[in-house]
Amino acid sequence: MLVIGKSTFAATLSWVIAADVLDAHSPAFAPFSAVLIMQVTVYRSLVQSLRYVAAVVAGVMVQAAIGLFSGPELLTFALVALVALTIGRWPVLGAQGSQVATAAFFAFATYTASAGGSERFLRLGEIVVLVLIGCAIGTAVNVLIAPPLRYRSAEYGIRNLAGALYGLLADMYPVLSEQVPDQETTAGWRARAALTGQMIEQARSGLETAKESTLLNPRRLMRRYRGHPGFEGYEAVLDALERTLYQVAGLIRALDQSRELGDSGRPLLQRYGVFLEAVSEAAEVLTTLDETTLFQQAKRLKRLTREAESQRAEVVEEAGRLPLSLADPTVPYGILVTEAGRLMEEFRYTSEVLLEAAQRSQGRLRRRPGTAAGDLRAPGHQGPRTND
Fold it and tell me: Which positions ≥6 away from 20 have C-beta within 8 Å?
């Protein structure tokens, strides 16, 4: 709704200036340009605005140069199209490359509809001026009226990914506690693990958008945003979640092989179910990740990770009682023990990264002059304890 409102305002203002103030022959170029460069971040608006202006200028110059020698003929249009489409392939123009040909075609139409030589070039110059006005107004509106900050985009992506991990583990541990999973069950788990690839890409896109939204954005200088912990911690958590999901996929493949050994490994699988339940409780913390309570969440995650570590030790102890060699590649239990260790490494790393990010945020907030205790982003926090 905000983007629609800002785009409407920018388009209307551009039309008024182009049609009423300048009395332009083709005023629609201004509002079209204003709406086109209204992007989700200030940085992207500025970059796309520069590329769009460059593309339009290139298209108009192509028509002006060729039209100067050829006139408004069909051959002129063909040459303009050929040159404009070639320039549009230039990688520097990015997504705006197609606008070179678009501008050239509009310029050709304007050129052929004009009466004389001087008027033709005046109309072509008008197109460039209108595009500049539209881009300037659109960028100014995006910067000055609630410039978009996408801090939450990073959190949403991690929450969704953690939710997928939590849901998968929450379905796995009750089955392992009761029986050896059958082929249909493990096939379903594998399919769900495979679907997380797209979620990982979406989470990374959200994180990149959040990081980009802070560039050239005056809103980040406001007091409420100065204590933001940054995105280093979120990026590390996302990397850890990606590795964890791959490890869970390997764990499921190992469970798929466990049926071949019958009931000899039931005690280990039951103990493994208890371990996965503890891991799922730790993963659940990340499903509600929130920068305003990051310190408390990081502390809770660290505590739950320690509890899961104790359950992993029980898995290792139970595995030692098996009459089978854990080093035998044909036996899945060695893989299960190995994956348990890797899972705990990722959760330990995640809890430490989040705790460090939260502590840095708390430190910046306490150092800010005039900040009262009630202004801290993590309510109730009295400072980190060194024994943790």
Answer: none
Residues 6+ apart with CB under 8 A from 377: 227, 291, 292, 294, 361, 362, 365
Contacts of 367 (CB under 8 A, 6+ apart): none
- The set of residues, in sequence order, having a beta carbon less than 8 Å from that of 133 and lying 6+ positions away, is 14, 17, 18, 30, 33
Band of pLDDT at residue 97, cut at 50, 70 and 90 = very high
Sign, CA torsion 15/21/23/25: negative
Q: Nearest to residue 235, comparing CAs of 217, 210, 198, 199?
A: 210
Cα–Cα dist 44/143, whole Å: 11
Global pTM reads: 0.67
Q: How many CA atoms lie within 13 A of 7 on its CB side?
A: 13
Q: What is the DSSP letter of 92?
A: G
Tokens 């933001």, residue located: 228
Q: Is the distance from CB of 94 to CB of 53 less than 8 angstroms?
A: no
Q: Quick one: residue 375, left, alpha or beta (phi over 0 = left, psi -120 to 50 = alpha)?
A: alpha
Distance CA 346, CA 237 (A): 9
Instruction: Give ∠ CA 185-190-192 in degrees, rounded to 5.
Output: 100
Q: How confident is the model at residue 306 (pLDDT cuts 50, 70, 90)?
A: very high
Rounded to 5°, the CA angle 271-274-277 comes to 150
